[in-house]
Amino acid sequence: MTSPLSDLLNLDLSDTKKIIAEYIWIGGSGMDIRSKARTLPGPVSDPTKLPKWNYDGSSTDQAAGDDSEVILYPQAIFKDPFRKGNNILVMCDAYTPAGDPIPTNNRNKAVKIFDHPNVKAEEPWFGIEQEYTLLKKDVKWPLGWPLGGFPGPQGPYYCAVGADKAFGRDIVDAHYKACLYSGLSIGGANGEVMPGQWEFQISPTVGIGAGDQLWVARYILERITEICGVIVSFDPKPIQGDWNGAAAHTNFSTKSMRKDGGLDLIKEAIKKLEVKHKQHIAAYGEGNERRLTGKHETADINTFSWGVANRGASVRVGRDTEKEGKGYFEDRRPSSNMDPYLVTSMIAETTIL
After folding, report:
1. Which of 99, 114, 269, 307 could pair with 207 in a Cys bridge, judged by C-beta atoms 3.0 to 4.6 Å apart?
2. Is the pLDDT of residue 58 over 80?
3. What's the predicted TM-score (pTM) here?
4. Virtual CA dihedral for 299, 290, 146, 144, nearest 10 degrees?
5. What whole-number distance in Å separates Cα of residue 71 and Cα of residue 65?
6. Same domain, yes or no: 61 and 201
């Protein structure tokens, strides 16, 4: 039997013709996802047809109290898996009332790079592997771990099944289906090396779309864990010691790299990344030095390295890419809490421009 509350939550609004749009944006810390809802007179599929909206930037650490208005510009629309029907999720970025991007608006900076004719001509594809850890709400300790204690050492948990090895699968499956329903290019999901840790992938997506999709997928995950009374952590090293950290490995290719002879261009791109290693590390996520130690499938943060099929390198080239002489490479340095707008545009800028 359904409860009166769930009956109300599942009310069909189609007779009213109206829809609810949930506007999503990134707060002042760079990792806090915010959202609020508004009613619109009817269905909308083009973000340019949506109204701009404002919010109190002094409450998100993005404006002063005496001049607190920040304006949301709708940028991408996805179906709302929570309200269903014609209701939508809207990914936005933030501007001052004068129309200037606020300092934390990394999307606007990324668009400038992706709109460059040289970058556009190369149709850059990004596939992002987002790792995360599920924590018990009141104790902030991983799901499935004994309270205040530790499970058995790593080994049995990666892609595992069973009540003693896989913790939180319902959340993962609910997230997977919700992302597909929303129209996101989610490519897969799996259990990770540390128990209580999982990963989903955003399949190769062109340019700015990869950042939009990852942020909305994170938003959906936060909402599902909220329903379940669980915390999702994007900390790159949630548990110190002999446990794997969490990353957001970023796979990248250009049109030229995907053509015959592309492997030579991949090697050239990797050389460019090596030259800018320090700048990239600085933008690849907070607390990453706790993860990039040279252990647990990482390269040391201070040393750039690359290799074929080497998960202990900064950049990995796949066996298939080597064999076919074309394809993509994987930048393994970004941490789980990275901003995809920053990381994707930086890779494009360094390797193409």
Report:
1. 114
2. yes
3. 0.97
4. -60
5. 15
6. no
Cα–Cα distance, 353 to 119 (Å, whole number)? 7
The answer to whether residues 83 and 226 belong to one domain is: no
Token duo for residue 79: 């179906």
Give the domain CATH number at 348: 3.30.590.10
For residues 92 and 121, membership in a common domain is answered with no
Q: Which one-letter amino acid corresponds to residue 254? A: T
Q: Answer yes or no: is 110 within a domain.
A: no
18 alpha carbon, distance to own chain's centre? 30
- Quick one: 222 and 341 in the same domain? yes
Q: Which amino acid is at 82?
A: F
Contacts of 203 (CB under 8 A, 6+ apart): 127, 185, 186, 187
Query: Residue 2 has what pLDDT?
Result: 82
Give, in degrees to the nearest 5, the angle at Cα 256 between 265 and 188. Answer: 95
pLDDT digits 0-9 by tens, 169-218: 999 999 999 999 999 999 999 999 999 999 999 999 999 999 999 999 99
Both tokens assigned to 59: 């409450």
Residues near 347 by Cβ (< 8 Å), separated by ≥ 6? 124, 126, 250, 252, 273, 280, 331
Which range marks the domain in which residue 139 is found? 117-352
Q: Is the dihedral of CA 187, 205, 32, 71 positive or negative?
A: negative
Clarify whether residues 96 and 155 are in a common domain. no
Number of domains in the chain: 2
Indicate if 18 and 147 belong to the same structural domain: no
For the stretch 98-139, pLDDT in tens is: 999 999 999 999 999 999 999 999 999 999 999 999 999 999
Comparing 99 with 67, the larger pLDDT belongs to: 99
Same domain, 22 and 169: no
Min mean pLDDT across 21-25, 61-65, 251-255, 321-325 is at 61-65
